[in-house]
C-alpha cells in the first residue's frame, strides 16, 4: 500500500488483496483493489448550514467549488396523480436548501425540450439565501405538460455546467416516464457527449419509467440510480443526494492500470458499493497504461476487481502483473497529473498445490457479487419474456448467492419476487403476482453489493 496527498485533496490509499500464487503455466491473476479516501467529508466536519462560502480550492475554506444542475421531469405524466408534481417541486426545494453557500446551481424543467427555469439566463446562480429563495419561487410555477426527451435535458445541463470554472460538476435527474420523444440513439449520443464532463444521479419516481434508461444514465455519468416508488419519499431522497454531492472533494480521479509487456487486461470492474464494468471505458495514458474513470470522491471507500492474463512461466519465477495508481488530472497550476496512491499486483509460480489453488476471500466474494447482479437481471428478463423455468433457475441462483454472501438487502428484495423454499440450495418458486414497484426496485438495485468482511 502507498499513500500520497496533495494540499486540499483527500488522502487516498490503495490496498491490494489477491492470491499471487499460480501453478506452473498458470496465467490468470485476480486482485481486489480497495481505494479509500479520507480527510474530505461534506465540509470537513462543519455542519452544512455553518459552512463558509466556497469559490476556489483554498486552504481553510469549507470545500471545493461546485456546480449542480437539477433536472426535473415536467412532462404531462407528472400530473397523474397531481401530487406527483407537487412532491417533485418540494423535493427539488429541499435539495436547493441543502446546497452549500457559494455553490453554483440551476434548475432545468424537462419535457420534450429542456428549459433552464432558474436562473433562466443560460447561466448558473450562486447559492445564498436570496438565490435559494428565488429558485424555490420559480419551482412553484412549474406545471406538468409535454413529452419526455431526456437527452435534451442532459445536453442543457452540460452547457450550463461546462461554463462554470469549478472543481465539481454534478447533475440530479428525476423522471417518471419512458424516454418516448427522442430516439434511443439520441439519448445514447447525449450520454456519450456528457460522459467525463459531469457526474449525475438519476431517480425514477412511480412505476411507469424504464429501469434500463435510468440505470444507463447513472452508469454512463458515474452516478447512482434508484427508484422512489412513493413520491412522498422524494424530498428525503433528494436531500441525501445533495448532501452526498456537497461531500465530494475532488473530481475526475482515474484508476490507472499499467501492465508489463505480454500482460493482457481481461477486465476492470468496480465491485463495491455497486457493480460497474469499466473495461470498455479505458483511455490511453502512455505506453502499456490506461485510465479508467471513477468520478468524484469524498470520504469513502470503493472496491475494484482487476483481472489480467500473464505470460506462462515456470515454477519459482515471479513478476509484476500490474501496477494500479490513483491519478488526479493536471490542472492549470500543475505541470503533470499527480499520483495520489498506488498498489502492485503480483504473480508467483509455485509447485505448492495448496498455495496455487487457494482462492483469495475478497476475490471469491466479489466474483459472487458480480454474478449475483448478472443473474438477477437475467432472471427478471426471462420472467418478462415468459421463460418461467429460466427465471426460476436464475433467481434461485440469485437467492443462493445473496444468502451465501450475507447480502441481506438483496435477499429481502428477491423475497418479494420469489417464494424461497431453501436459500442455501437456491430452491425457489416464482410468485404468481408481483407488484411493479417490487420488481423495479429489485432490478434497479441489483448492482448494489455488500462489502466483504476483511
Could you explain how this protein is built, in words?
This protein has eleven helices and 21 strands. Helices cover 31% and strands 30% of the residues. The chain is globular and about 75 Å long. The two termini are 15 Å apart. Residues 1-7 and 41-61 have low confidence and may be disordered. The protein has 454 residues and is an alpha+beta fold. The strands form four sheets. Strands 5, 6, 7, 8, 9, 10 and 11 form a seven-stranded mixed beta sheet that branches. It has a six-stranded antiparallel beta sheet with strand order 1-2-4-17-13-14, with helices on one face. A six-stranded mixed beta sheet has the order 3-19-18-12-16-15. Helix 8 packs antiparallel against helix 9. A hairpin with a 3-residue loop joins strand 13 (264-272) and strand 14.
Any descriptors?
single chain; 6-stranded antiparallel β-sheet; 11 helices; 454 residues; disordered N terminus; alpha+beta
How large is the share of residues in beta strands? 25-35%
Return residue spans where pLDDT drops below 50 for at least 5 consecutive residues: 1-7, 41-61
Distance between the termini: 15 Å
Shape: globular
Task: Write down how many β-strands occur, each being a DSSP E stretch of 2 or more residues.
Answer: 21
Tally of helical segments: 11
Helix fraction, binned, reads 25-40%
Amino acid at each position: 500500500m502507498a499513500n500520497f496527498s496533495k494540499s486540499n485533496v483527500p488522502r487516498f490509499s490503495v490496498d491490494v488483496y489477491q492470491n499471487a500464487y499460480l501453478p506452473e503455466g498458470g496465467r490468470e491473476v485476480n486482485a481486489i483493489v480497495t481505494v479509500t479516501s479520507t480527510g474530505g467529508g461534506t465540509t470537513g466536519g462543519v455542519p452544512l448550514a455553518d459552512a463558509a462560502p466556497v469559490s476556489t480550492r483554498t486552504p481553510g475554506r469549507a470545500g471545493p467549488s461546485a456546480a449542480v444542475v437539477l433536472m426535473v421531469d415536467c412532462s404531462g405524466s407528472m400530473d397523474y396523480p397531481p401530487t406527483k408534481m407537487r412532491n417533485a417541486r418540494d423535493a427539488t426545494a429541499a435539495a436547493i436548501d441543502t446546497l452549500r453557500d457559494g455553490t453554483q446551481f440551476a434548475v432545468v424543467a424537462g419535457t420534450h425540450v429542456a428549459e433552464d427555469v432558474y436562473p433562466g439566463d443560460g447561466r448558473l446562480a450562486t447559492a445564498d439565501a436570496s438565490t435559494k429563495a428565488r429558485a424555490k419561487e420559480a419551482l412553484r410555477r412549474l406545471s406538468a405538460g409535454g413529452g419526455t426527451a431526456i437527452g435534451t435535458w442532459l445536453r442543457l445541463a452540460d452547457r450550463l455546467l461546462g461554463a462554470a470554472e469549478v472543481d465539481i460538476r454534478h447533475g440530479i435527474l428525476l423522471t417518471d416516464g419512458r424516454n418516448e420523444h427522442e430516439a434511443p440513439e439520441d439519448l445514447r449520443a447525449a450520454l456519450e457527449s456528457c460522459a467525463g464532463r459531469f457526474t449525475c444521479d438519476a431517480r425514477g419516481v412511480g412505476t411507469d419509467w424504464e429501469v434500463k434508461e435510468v440505470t444507463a444514465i447513472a452508469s454512463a455519468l458515474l452516478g447512482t440510480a434508484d427508484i422512489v416508488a412513493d413520491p412522498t419519499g422524494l424530498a428525503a431522497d433528494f436531500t441525501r443526494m445533495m448532501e452526498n454531492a456537497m461531500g465530494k472533494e475532488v473530481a475526475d480521479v482515474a484508476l490507472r492500470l499499467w501492465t508489463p509487456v505480454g500482460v493482457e487486461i481481461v477486465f476492470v470492474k468496480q465491485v463495491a458499493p455497486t457493480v460497474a464494468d469499466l473495461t470498455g471505458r479505458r483511455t490511453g495514458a502512455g505506453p502499456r497504461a490506461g485510465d479508467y474513470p471513477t468520478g468524484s470522491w469524498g470520504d469513502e471507500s470503493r472496491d475494484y476487481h482487476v483481472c489480467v492474463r500473464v505470460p506462462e512461466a515456470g515454477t519459482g519465477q515471479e513478476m509484476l502483473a500490474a501496477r494500479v495508481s490513483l491519478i488526479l488530472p493536471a490542472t492549470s497550476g500543475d505541470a503533470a497529473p499527480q499520483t495520489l496512491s498506488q498498489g502492485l499486483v503480483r504473480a508467483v509460480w509455485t509447485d505448492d498445490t495448496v498455495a496455487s489453488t487457494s482462492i483469495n476471500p475478497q476475490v471469491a466474494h466479489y466474483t459472487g457479487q458480480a454474478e449475483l447482479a448478472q443473474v438477477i437481471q437475467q432472471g427478471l428478463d426471462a420472467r418478462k419474456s415468459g421463460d418461467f423455468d429460466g427465471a426460476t433457475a436464475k433467481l434461485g441462483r440469485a437467492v443462493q448467492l445473496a444468502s451465501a454472501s450475507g447480502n441481506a438487502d438483496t435477499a429481502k428484495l428477491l423475497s418479494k419476487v420469489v417464494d424461497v423454499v431453501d436459500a442455501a440450495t437456491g430452491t425457489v418458486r416464482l410468485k404468481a403476482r408481483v407488484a411493479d414497484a417490487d420488481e423495479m426496485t429489485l432490478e434497479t438495485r441489483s448492482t448494489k453489493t455488500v462489502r466483504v468482511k476483511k
